[in-house]
Design a protein that fits this description.
By secondary structure, this protein is α+β, with helices and mostly antiparallel strands. The protein is built from 10 helices and 19 strands.
Length: 341
């Protein structure tokens, strides 16, 4: 039995390759069961998406910050151990789950932190919530999640800055994190990804590596953070900060980032993508990105790169022609076999 939510995951975890029964856990299970604004948490059913929850939270001055890029279901995010653009400050889904209701293979229903439990901290018993997060339906089917909420920041500012090389961009990220700047978002897009986003979303940024940044806090905090990060980026040959201060401008900016996959597919009409996902220690990030881009170039591949580099995570999207029934790509020390039927 394979639970299926919104189906927004790129890894194919809900695909029944060996057969089986797919269980759609979103139908008739789309309620936000409770919002505890004074406890900064909410209880949601499997059909509730992150955008749906945030829409309901607007009047409360709260929000759910885990943002994997797509409008994923929250219980699906728990099942897949989702990360996202805000992980550098607010953590991944793992850090934002307080309790899960799970149906086990023998039909028993358990709540991983205890019935109705929602404390921020507990040292009683096994940490079953963390065991279930990322289990992808292999240990049970998640039918409810109690998730942590956060206060909406007083001030939000977003910025885009270009760099001459990927190394400069990533080095500035490492330096920013080493200086303990509480960044909300740090997204890296290489020159190929910027070209795709420009074409698909009607942008006019230079086709060079970029960082998409976001700052949260009080007005004075945001002003101090932005000046500090501007100084750091200038030391690594960063260009002019282009600001997005109004809500509509920030939405346009991050919508372009969230559409990166579709922008890449549009680069080669009729193509498909093998999407990679790797996370390394921050100190290893500059070398990892450099060598990965070198491997892509050496193999003659078209592979835009985008990543949540604030937590050491990045993706490459290797585009290929599905009309070739079988194609082997030698990628560095690895071999990826693509079989399209």
């Amino acid at each position: 039995m394979i639970p299926h939510g919104t189906g927004t995951g790129l890894e194919g975890g809900t695909t029944a390759l060996a057969g089986g029964v797919a269980i759609d856990v979103t139908k008739n299970m789309e309620e936000i069961s409770a919002i505890y604004n004074q406890d900064f948490c909410a209880v949601v059913q499997p059909g509730v998406t992150r955008e749906g929850l945030n829409q309901a939270l607007k009047a409360e001055g709260l929000w759910f910050p885990v943002d994997p890029g797509a409008n994923a279901s929250i219980c699906g995010m728990c099942a897949t151990g989702a990360s996202g653009t805000n992980a550098v400050r607010y953590g991944t889904i793992k850090e934002n789950v307080l309790n899960l209701e799970v149906v086990l293979a023998d039909g028993r229903i358990i709540q991983t932190a205890g019935i109705g439990a929602r404390p921020n901290k507990s040292a009683a018993g096994y940490n079953l919530s963390s065991l279930m997060v990322g289990s992808e339906g292999t240990l049970g089917i998640i039918t409810s999640a109690t998730v942590r909420l956060h206060a909406v920041p007083e001030t939000i500012a977003a910025a885009v800055i270009s760099f001459p090389t990927p190394q400069d961009a990533v080095d500035s990220v490492v330096a920013t994190l080493q200086c303990s700047v509480p960044m909300a978002r740090i997204e890296f897009l290489d020159e190929v990804q910027m070209m795709a986003c420009n074409k698909y979303s009607g942008l006019d940024y230079p086709q060079t590596p970029h960082l998409f940044l976001e700052f949260h806090g009080s007005q004075s905090e945001v002003e101090a953070q932005t000046e500090f990060v501007k100084d750091i980026c200038s030391q690594f040959n960063g260009g002019e900060f282009k600001w997005a201060l109004q809500q509509e401008d920030r939405t346009r900016l991050w919508t372009a980032r969230h559409r990166a996959y579709y922008a890449n597919i549009a680069l080669r009409p009729g193509c498909r993508s093998v999407t990679t996902d790797v996370c390394v220690p921050i100190s290893a990030l500059p070398e990892m990105i450099r060598t990965t881009k070198q491997d892509i170039d050496d193999q003659g591949l078209l592979g835009p790169m985008v990543g949540h580099v604030g937590d050491g995570n990045f993706h490459t999207m290797l585009l290929f022609d599905p009309k070739n029934q079988e194609r082997e790509i030698s990628f560095g020390r690895f071999d990826i076999y693509i079989l399209v039927r």
